[in-house]
Amino acid sequence: MEPGPIVIVGGVTSWPRRYAALARTLRELSGSEVYVAKLTPLDWLLGSVRGFGQLVFEIATTVDRALLESGSKKAVLVGHSAGGVACRVYLGGDPPYGGRRYSGHRRVSHLITLGSPHNVPDRNANSKSLAPITRVNDLFPGSLHASASLGYLSVAGSAADGAFSARTRKRYERFTDDGRIAGDGVVPVEAALLPGAGSVVLDDVYHGPPLGRWYGSDLETVERWWPQELRVGSSLVQERRA
User: Fold this and answer.
1) Can you tell me whether residue 160 is helix, strand or coil?
2) Please, what are the domains in the chain?
3) Could you report the per-residue pLDDT of 72-93, keeping only the tens digit for each?
4) Comparing C-alpha atoms, which of 144, 118, 142, 143 is closest to residue 132?
5) End-to-end CA distance of the chain
6) Beta strands of 59-218 (E only): which ranges?
């Protein structure tokens, strides 16, 4: 089956151009057009002051454009890092968020998150940087809209063990009591696995390009997490790799 258009939503420190190679790979694997939401680190910074509603509105705008231009009824959302959490808000429903009520679950067939920090311990609920995540979990818990028509997949990397790096351990302990566990160098595996979602853990993958091989590094890596049912022209991919 040919999937609808794909929309990539980046994280806090990522500029849209970072996802150009991932977009090309997903286009090859799926046969679908790929769009990247125009969110920048500046938008995330403003969101931390004014609220994140505008970021979710940008996701909605990008999905609307993708569906209009493709003539499709549903899109595939791919959210990297905090972008995956923002995608959950877009899937929304009740209650409203940032003054708007989103019902993106009606316009999305799959939500795939890459190293997204879904799970935050209660002790960090008042942390300035993590409080928005706890609010999302309160409003839109877990795989809220999981059904035959909307699939959730959370992808985690486990290339960096907090037991061997004090810096990595400290990063992980924002999300867990003991940071001596595996993760992608920024988000531990247990924080990246959304309750109720399908999951893939990649043992040699880091959070982003500066750290090493990341979720969107190359065709071989993306093939390990991209759902089989969303692939088109697999023979073409194999021919290219032969």
Assistant:
1) strand
2) 6-241 (3.40.50.1820)
3) 999 999 999 999 999 999 998 7
4) 118
5) 24
6) 75-80, 108-114, 151-157, 160-161, 182-183, 198-202
Strand-pairing partners, residue 114, are: 80, 155
3-class secondary-structure state, position 100: strand
Measured CA to CA in angstroms, residue 183 lies from 1, 176, 198, 232, 234 at distances of 33, 11, 17, 31, 30
pLDDT tens for residues 26-66? 999 999 999 999 999 999 999 988 889 999 999 999 999 99
- C-beta of residue 113 within 8 angstroms of C-beta of residue 153: yes
Q: What are phi and psi of 16, to 5 degrees?
A: -50, -35
**Contact predicate 137/90, CB 8 Å:** no
CB 191 within 8 A of CB 179: no
The neighbour count for residue 238, using CB atoms within 10 Å, is 9
**CA nearest neighbour of 136 among 199, 91, 175, 193:** 91
Sign of torsion over alpha carbons 204, 207, 208, 214: positive
Q: Is 188 helix (H, G, I), strand (E, B) or coil?
A: strand
Dump strand ranges (E) for the chain: 6-9, 34-36, 75-80, 108-114, 151-157, 160-161, 182-183, 198-202
